[in-house]
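Researcher: I'm preparing a figure for a lab meeting and need a structural model of a single chain. I don't have an experimental structure, so a prediction will have to do for now. The sequence is pasted below. Please return the structure as tokens so I can convert it later.
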Amino acid sequence: MRPTRKLLTLAGSTLLLTGSVFLLPTSALAGVAAAVPCTEAGLVSAVNAANAAGGGTVTLTARCTYTLTSAHGDDGVNGPAGLPLITTPISFSGNANTFARPASATPFRIAQVAPTGALTLNAVTLTGGKATTAGHDNGGGVLNFGAVTLTGGALSGNNAVGLGGGIHSSGTGAAATFTSSTVQGNTAGRGAGIASAGATLTLTSTTVTLNAATTQPGGIYSGGTSTLTTTTVTANTPTNCVSSPNPVGGCVG
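Model: Understood. Here is the structure written out token by token.
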């Protein structure tokens, strides 16, 4: 008995059905973005290409930890960053991904966002960033002068000698928006989890916990506009609660 073959039309393309095997023409796959190889070189190349194109989406290899062993971005003012400077709107489409600086590497933050840039991280964790450049030691995970959006991700285990172990946003045009994310285990001189100086901070369904600063407050330092919704700020040192010089809503110890 001959196998049954049917020709179906899907979104303007012809689909050949042979038994249970679907054969898609090459043209039908043309719009599918290839994942960036799970290497430092692949990630750096993808960011450079996105910047050159005026922005874009970078699709990451699922569950890959992209280890950054050296800095690939430096504006000559604020110290080195592991990723090339984010100067355009770049979105990282992740799936349990991590951008990590190993402890053995020379100190550098993970990312810096220029005033013209926008960094969107979906299901990505940034860890191990370290900002120690004298006089430019803010933002261990991210130094932000543009826009940062973190969804379903984390800033964990980053360090800044100055402000913002996890992230430092600076300037009235800067904004950080976190949703369903975690800021945990970061250290800094002040605002170990998040420092937002004259910037806009929006946290929704996010946890800021176990961050430690030398000077109050430990979890969040906000010198701009902050909106916290269904967000928990807890177990930071020093506290962000009512006794803090910079208390925030949602603080429970």
